[in-house]
UniProtKB/TrEMBL annotation:
High-level lineage: Bacteria, Bacillati, Bacillota, Clostridia, Lachnospirales
Positions of the Integrase catalytic domain: 156-341
GO molecular function, one term: nucleic acid binding
TM helices/strands, residue ranges: none
Protein name: ISNCY family transposase
GO BP annotation list: DNA integration
Organism name: Vallitalea guaymasensis
Length: 469
């Protein structure tokens, strides 16, 4: 269009011997350039006005075979990847370095939208596909176009960040097809000030075990945080009136562990209030399944091993730098205190064989000198399973280790010679200052609000029965 306009202006100028200044004003150039155009017109005619780069590809144009490779890789290997992540994977695994806008133009020209596309982009693509669908007659083409239309997703509003590292740790779990064909739960903890993932763990369900593992990573790698911000699951908060037994009251255990370390727990029923961790799950659901698939992780054990390296890579890319952000994490406790604090408790009774039954196995209490201790049937015992898997029991004001009783003896007194005369080895037993003493734990439970509500209801019920009789 510009070349044709120039040609018509110069042709009219030459034929009518018009004003060169007027022609220069129309074309937005100088009088000297008008003279050059007139000379070119007289020598070559209309061909002179054709630009020299017409029909030539720019030097930075991507070759057609690379475009086809980008399309094929997205369809087969890196499907469901957002465009920014796809560019990173192309550079890392395929050695193809292209910009995000280039990938976006290539894929969107074929009707492919990013899973993280904005609402305006989806609307514009929907209108474009609608026009194509109206213009085509083939049912196959209509079905293919319809598949490319991505449903709109709600976004979470932002909230201001905290001032210090460790001031607020947001924790949550997300159920998703992270790997394989079964849904699993990813538990993560995110620092609100920097957006750093400080703990991550896969489990089959959203459980106390998953959050204990995340807490263990925080204590080992960073220290004791000031506060946890979570949803109102029973792992963190318990307000149900008709409570199950104490061993199912997981709020008491996690809450008591936080109390021993001086960590505050704040809960909310509004997901937007902890938008940092909610938005992070959107990013992880877009990126992590592809990374796990490329790494060949198919089990929870493999996925948790892969998380260690991936979280470091993720933080390096997305977390804010710690230049001027002060840390309020307290000093890490020793391993012994961590193992005893992050413990799971179960109430049991001594049976008529002077043993404790747990998970279809029988255990006998052992004192610090390695000798078994026998209590009467019905004696109350608090079984303590430390984080590293050791089993203890608190009976009264004493703590013992637990030894599993095998189904069959390993040796025979009648057929194995010589018989061992070694004394039982001494056992390590936590001191009475450890946080899971039965009396201390029971005292804490009785202070809980829901405990008083249940006690009051039980008393009223007993009184009503007495009156009725």
């Amino acid at each position: 269009m510009t070349e044709q306009y120039k040609y018509e202006i110069i042709k009219r100028l030459v034929e009518t011997k018009g004003n060169k200044d007027n022609a220069a004003l129309k074309l937005g150039c100088t009088r000297r350039n008008i003279n050059r155009l007139i000379k070119g017109y007289l020598d070559q005619g209309k061909i002179f006005f054709i630009h020299g780069n017409r029909g030539r590809k720019p030097s930075h144009t991507i070759e057609d075979n690379i475009k086809e490779n980008i399309l094929n890789l997205y369809r087969t290997k890196y499907y469901n990847t957002n465009f920014t992540h796809y560019c990173e994977l192309l550079e890392e695994h395929e050695k193809i370095k292209v910009s995000v806008s280039t990938v976006q133009n290539i894929l969107m020209s074929e009707g492919m939208l990013s899973p993280k596309a904005r609402r305006v982009t989806k609307k514009r693509m929907r209108l474009k596909l609608k026009k194509q669908r109206n213009a085509t007659k083939s049912k196959k083409e209509v079905a293919k176009i319809t598949e490319n239309i991505v449903a709109l997703e709600d976004a979470h509003p932002r909230r201001p960040r905290c001032a210090f590292l460790g001031e607020m740790i947001q924790m949550d779990a997300s159920v998703h097809f992270w790997f394989g064909d079964k849904k699993t739960h990813l538990h993560i903890a995110v620092d609100d000030a920097t957006g750093t993932v400080v703990g991550a763990y896969f489990d089959r369900q959203e459980t106390l075990k998953g959050y204990y593992n995340v807490f263990h990573q925080i204590l080992n790698n960073h220290g004791i945080p000031y506060m946890f911000y979570t949803d109102r699951r029973t792992v963190f908060e318990y307000r149900q009136k008709k409570s199950p037994s104490l061993e199912k009251d997981t709020f008491t255990q996690f809450g008591y562990a936080c109390k021993q370390l001086g960590v505050e727990i704040r809960t909310t029923s509004n997901p937007q209030a902890k938008g940092r961790v909610e938005r992070m799950f959107q990013t992880l659901q877009s990126r992590l399944p592809i990374e796990l698939r490329l790494a060949g992780a198919t089990t929870i054990e493999q996925a948790n091993i892969f998380l260690d390296s991936y979280i470091q890579k993720y933080n390096a890319k997305f977390a804010l730098p710690l230049n001027n952000i002060k840390s309020v994490f307290e000093k890490q406790p020793d391993n012994e205190k961590i193992n005893l604090t992050l413990a799971v408790l179960v109430n049991r009774k001594i049976d008529n064989g002077h043993c404790i039954r747990l998970n279809k196995k029988y255990y006998k209490p052992i004192d610090s000198n390695g000798y078994p201790v026998y209590y009467h049937k019905g004696t109350l015992a608090l079984v303590i399973k430390s984080f590293d898997g050791q089993l203890f029991t608190s009976i009264g004001e004493k703590v013992y280790t637990l030894d599993e009783i095998p189904e069959h003896e390993y040796t025979s007194r009648n057929f194995h010679y010589p018989q061992s005369t070694e004394k039982p080895r001494k056992r390590y037993i936590p001191p009475m200052s450890h946080p899971w003493k039965k009396s201390t734990f029971t005292k804490f439970v009785k202070k809980q609000k829901h405990y008083y509500e249940q006690s009051f209801e039980s008393a009223m019920y007993s009184q009503a029965l007495t009156i009725a009789k």
